[in-house]
Specification:
Hypothetical protein af1432; 2 domains; mainly alpha; single chain
């Protein structure tokens, strides 16, 4: 899926995918993932390995004992979750560290984990869901890197993502959801994850859902995960509003959402 030529004409640079993720994506595509090879690949990049281990030892991952090597992490958590954290560390590394993005990275971490956990229990591809949640707002980081003086105040003042998207279109001719989807294409994420990122603003604001059936369950997971983060008391309502559109079995979705929400509340 090529990047929209209209976006190229705006001269907004999209960060290149790090080489280690190229190799990691090939490993994930194998029918049986080689844990030893994956661990060696991640550990071969010292900065990436350190970031992965620091992240995985945080309370939110619920490990009962500290992991000291990537191989240990793979044994405890599996390839999907470890690979997703490697993607998160690589994503953050291509952008400058700024206070404006701190809240966004926090949400990305939580959203990705929540979506991955729900997907796994619902029989959906966990890594695809986790990566969709992780990259959902990455277009904001691209925009901030492109025009920090103009975009920083806009990002901080935005009352909601749909209003922010309108301001972005007026100021830059592109919105962060489209820009984020373009970056996902550049980084060769799964097409369903790309579509989820592209439609997240519309879906969250009660607008159009994508017509691609493989992406619609991810959009439902994204919506529910965002309620878990921002308005946890509304999670049941979010499940009821999105289950039929996904389509997902409402009772199963509700049970999984409540279980994941309960587990995560003990780790925060």
């Amino acid at each position: 899926m090529p990047v929209d030529p209209a976006l190229r004409s705006l001269h907004i640079d999209l960060p290149a995918r790090p080489d280690v993720l190229v190799q990691l994506s090939l490993m994930l595509a194998e029918e049986a993932v080689d844990f030893k090879a994956m661990g060696s690949l991640i550990e071969g990049d010292m900065a990436l390995a350190a970031g992965v281990l620091k992240a995985l030892n945080a309370p939110i991952y619920g490990l009962r004992q500290q992991v000291r090597t990537v191989q240990q992490a793979l044994q405890y958590l599996g390839s999907s979750q470890v690979a997703a954290i490697a993607y998160e560390m690589a994503l953050r590394s291509v952008f400058p560290s700024t206070p404006e993005l701190d809240a966004m990275w926090f949400r990305a971490n939580r959203r990705g984990l929540l979506m991955g956990l729900m997907a796994r229990q619902l029989g959906l591809p966990a890594f695809v869901a986790h990566s969709a949640g992780l990259f959902e707002e990455c277009g904001k980081a691209v925009m901030l890197r492109h025009a920090p003086q103009r975009y920083g105040p806009m990002l901080q003042a935005a009352a909601s993502d749909d209003l922010l998207a309108l301001q972005e279109m007026q100021a830059f001719g592109v919105s962060h959801d489209a820009l984020g989807a373009a970056m996902c294409e550049t980084w060769m994420l799964d097409p369903a994850a790309i579509t989820c990122v592209r439609y997240h603003v519309a879906v969250h604001s009660g607008g159009t859902w994508p017509d691609k059936p493989e992406a619609r369950p991810l959009c439902a997971l994204s919506t529910v995960a965002n309620y878990m983060i921002k308005a946890p008391e509304m999670v049941d309502s979010a499940v009821q509003a999105t289950a039929a559109l996904a389509p997902l079995d409402e009772a199963a979705f509700l049970q999984v959402a409540r279980e994941v929400q309960s587990v995560m509340s003990t780790r925060s």
